[in-house]
Structures are given as C-alpha cells and as structure tokens.
Amino acid sequence: MSWVGIERRRHRRYGVKGSTLRWRPGAPLGWVAPASAPHILIDLCPAGCRFISKRELAPGRALSLAIEAPPARATVRAAGRVAWSRRSEELDAWHTGISMKARNSGSAERLKIVLDGAVLERIEITTRRYLKEMGKL
Description:
Layout: E1 20-25, E2 39-45, E3 48-53, E4 62-68, E5 76-87, E6 94-102, H1 105-117, H2 127-136
C-alpha cells in the first residue's frame, strides 16, 4: 500500500539503538530449528517490528522471535507472523515487517521496559551504517 496521508498503525514505532532480532520458524519446526543470524532491528512497538534481512520472508509465515535490546536485561521472546516484505532500494536486502505478541508476561514486561527507554522515534539506516553494523554481527 502507498501512503495516503492517514496513519493506519495503532502503535507508535520506536528505534532502539543496538537492538537485534533472531528468528526461527514457528512451532512445531521452530522447537528444533537453529536460530537465524542476528538482524538489525529498525523499529519496534508492542505489536510489531521491522528489521533488515538478507533473504525474503513470505508474508503470512509464522515465526518465533528473540529480540535482544540493551534496555532489556534478558531476551524478549515473541510469536510473530510476517506482515510484509519489501526489497530495499538502497541495500542488497529486504525490509521485513512482523506482527507479534510477547510469549509470556516476563517478555511483555521486558518489551515495555525497552519501549519506555526508547528515545528515538525512528532510526534511519544508511548503506554505510548497515554494512558497518553487519560487520559487527
């Protein structure tokens, strides 16, 4: 969908500096499948997130998520589903949007701590920064 001047999102998105996401296929395969490499988390809200991936993930695909963010002292675990996937115009990568729900009350509380500590409304990733960050991961 293209922008028509009306915000469709229910939650404000926040950039959380230094945060990454790893995913596995949704249950039951995810119980035994290895986690993906870490991906740079672009933005986050209570009901979803966006990250950069080297491969396309099909919309509708169920995922098990592990989010590492500096404000949270432990991993935020969530069940998610790919909402959309779009090829980046700047990078050899895909921007991927996920709708998600925290797995338990502990993860929900850690997610709240991360979002409460977020000071940036959005982090824009340039090609240079993306390549620099990927070199760290």
